[in-house]
Structures are given as structure tokens and as C-alpha cells.
Amino acid sequence: MKRTFLALAFATFGCGYRALYAAPAGERLHVSLARVAIANGAAGEEVARGAREELARQGALAAGSGYPALEIEVAGASESSEGIEVSAAGRAPGARVFEQTPTARATSVAIVARACVVRASGSDPERDTGDMRVEDLVGADAVDPVSSGFVYQDAQRAAAHRLGRKLAARILGDPSVSEGLGR
Fold this sequence. Notes:
This protein is of the alpha+beta class and about 180 residues long. It is built from three helices and four strands; from the N terminus they run αβαβββα. It has a single domain, classed as 2-Layer Sandwich (Double Stranded RNA Binding Domain), CATH 3.30.160. Strands 1-2-3-4 form a four-stranded mixed sheet. The longest helix has 27 residues, at about 145-170.
């Protein structure tokens, strides 16, 4: 009898575990893009779109604008060359090493942002995610630099979208970490 009571008590009440930064049950958040500190405004909007998508997926998106709000700040973007080489086009016959033109085989694109919950206008932020970073790799096309520019923009927007989803997931209490290329 005693064992049955204890088993029933644990099954009914559980262990009481709750994620430390989890959203209160039933809380719905509006999404607000507070600041975009990068030149590509479309990437900033893509962070917000990704956050809306994740909130909607988990049933925590409130329609329109208002409070409480998931406030997003896009802090920066970076890029770096990957796989640098001197192609055949960059080698001049008889040229010394320092006279040759190196090119990148790929470009690493990264977006950095943070998010927090704001309950009312002017209130203190809650559940700040801290800076999170998502990185993507874009292959370079030395023959057609115009198409490489479009691919670069697409990669930046894709990284921004993934970052928005990660920010919203972290705000809702899911463990989310920054993504990198493992360097």
C-alpha cells in the first residue's frame, strides 16, 4: 500500500524539475527587432523571422506587436577567408612568391545577436541570452564574382535565420548554443 501511494505521488507530482530559464507556461511573446548594427538590414529581419518561426513552432508566438516581447539586438556580422591559394590565374610566369595573387576558395560568414524578454515599455530585460553566433561557409566562384555576391547574401540570411531560431529556443528554456565551424 505504501509503495503504491509513493508511486502514485511521484507519477502525479513528478520530481519538480523545471528549466531555470524556461518561459512560464502559456506565455506568448511578440517579436521586436530593437537594433541592427550591421549593414545588411535583410539579415536583421531574417533573425526576427527565424525567432517568430521558432516561437510559433512551440506555440509561444503572440500576433502583432506589444508586450511581453522578445527583443532582438543584432550585434554584428563577420567574414573571413577560408582555404587561401594562389590559383593558376594569379601566377605570372617567373613571378616571385610575393608577386602572386592569392584568392580564397571559400568565405566564412557569421552573424552575432542576442535576445531578451521585455515585459512592458521601459521595464528591465529578463532572460537575456547573451551573445550567440551562427556561422556559414560559402564557396567562392573566381569566374563569376557577381553570382558569388548573391550566394554570400543568401548565406548571411540563412545564418541569420538559424540564429533567430536559436535565440527563441534559448529564451523558451531549450539548451541552444552558438554554431561555428569548429575552429
